Amino acid sequence: MKFLKVLMLATILFSIEGIAQADFNAYTQKIEGTDVSFKMVPIKGGAFTLGASKKDKKKEADELPQKKVEISSFWMGAFEVTHKEFLLFTDATRDLLANGKPNPEVISRPSSPYEDPSKGLEDEDMKPTVGLTQYGALSYCRWLYKRTGIFYRIPTEAEWELAAKAGTETPYFFGKKKKKLGEYAWFSDNAQGQLHKVGQKKPNANGLYDIYGNVAEWCLDQYYADFYTKIKDGEKDPRGMPDALYPRSVRGGSFMDDETGCRSTNRITSTDEWKARDPQLPKSFWWNTDSEFVGFRLVRPLEQPSAEEIEMFFSSMLE
Is the pTM of this model over 0.85? Predict the structure, then answer.
């Protein structure tokens, strides 16, 4: 039964590419009854090399060995999810007024954080939403599905890396010269220790803004330091299946990281220290008091799974 469940989840995550390529274009998703919208860009799948090159002097052991894998096509958010977008989910009254009618589905919404994880920056609507747990990010995706009828989730590590590399094999999608990073990312050298509005830097070739820096981004995977040693060459849509709350995977580096932390292959692990100042018992499912540097970005598989498959996915991820 466990094997069948994993197989069904794999089908949901990486559905067969049956949509005509003519429909596989960038689009803007609007949330009915609001002024909230976001842009999704197509990321063409195929074979790519996961992991760091041996020539990368900053590589770490968990980025090796490189493996040739196959990734299904998907759309990815051009920008990190903003506070303005996430606020519609957290504020039930605002959502009800925007929708114009009661929601037939009961959606669990985040409680108020014990301490503002954004350190007072939440009034800037176009800055990334931060401080939420992976559970919080996935709950937002479930709410978004109920509001739009479209299945969105967060990316796997492999999907994220494919999208970030944009066909390159160098440490950064713009090449080897780290001095160019400031053109594309808010990081420790230029961020003045704070978040910035999304989309102010140059995008990569896939049209993704802030894929490096600003905030690091949640992925679906459990973090395994030896994960790449267990992936087979040619494997389809690899993912570290979750089996514990910690550690989970985060990618991209943040405004607090240096150039090394913003490389395409750099892997970051979640930790219970991200809740260090949360005095609640049990600690919040929704918020991390100490991860003002972590947000998320949306992914949509090329083909929409069935309603039953989507509910199975969210049930398994949020249980």
Answer: yes
